[in-house]
């Protein structure tokens, strides 16, 4: 118990945000860079960019329409539950049409193909993104999917394959926390608290998080920040570490020694620094079918 208290000592209790709040300056700068560098693509990266632009306050109505058209054209880009889920979440952020539908193609049904007993086919990203997307569509997640994800937790957190073996990772654990909290599972749940504690133990010397040891990485740090927000806390140390990866042009580097994919790093950093969680954007209604 004392060990847990020490880990949480550097976190700040999350205050409820006001209805209207200014977008974080670093997030806005990142979104401004993203606006001119992220192509209007019909894939997961295109969906992530749309979400980040909305979170960063830099998505115009015209850009939202163009990016939504691209997503609907590429709706079947990966043929995985996670891929369809990303399209749903991107369309939700766009605010253009129903996020369930890509023309006559029903993304909710596409996500469910091959699922069994609450387990979506694929890895932890397929499972967690599909759970978040079904919640977005007011169609779940099912209790079976929550149980399946909880059962897959290893000795610390979750690994990519959801096998309860070795290889638990910060990003896999953060995604599981986000999906389970989004499903309505209490932050006081023992399994969630243990997983969050394990995640915090992976912190680097700079205050951020990594998947490979060594220096903090933008993507893992951003996901850890969002998972901690979902647990009811802010993480000032991780936030400072993430801000330190922002370049002069507004983009974010993968790490201090490796620029990596600035598009992917910037997408994740914007959402975390904006204090947002998925889904981003308003939803008025979801139709029963796509025509």
How many individual helices? 13
* Physical arrangement of strands within the biggest beta sheet: 1-4
- Which structural category do the helix and sheet elements fall into? mainly alpha
Q: Indicate the CATH topology.
A: Glycosyltransferase
What's the CATH class, please? Mainly Alpha
CATH architecture: Alpha/alpha barrel
User: What is the gyration radius calculated from CA atoms?
Assistant: 18 Å
Number of strands: 4
Strand content: under 5%
Mean pLDDT: 90
Main pleated sheet: 2 strands, antiparallel
Throw out a few tags for this protein.
single chain; 291 residues; mainly alpha; Glycosyltransferase; two-stranded antiparallel ribbon; 4 strands
Structure described in brief:
The protein is mainly α and 291 residues long. It has helices spanning 2-8, 25-37, 44-55, 61-73, 81-94, 107-112, 124-136, 143-151, 170-182, 190-200, 218-230, 236-243, 262-273; strands at 12-13, 101-102, 105-106, 233-234.
Task: Please tell me about this protein's structure.
The protein is mostly helical and 291 residues long. It has a single domain (23-273), classed as Glycosyltransferase (Alpha/alpha barrel). 49% of the residues lie in helices and 3% in strands. It has 13 helices and 4 strands. Strands 1-4 form a two-stranded antiparallel sheet. Strand 2 and strand 3 (105-106) form a beta hairpin. Helix 4 runs antiparallel to helix 5, helix 7 runs parallel beside helix 9 and helix 11 (218-230) packs antiparallel against helix 12. It is globular, with a radius of gyration of 18 Å. It starts with a helix and ends in an 18-residue tail after the last helix.
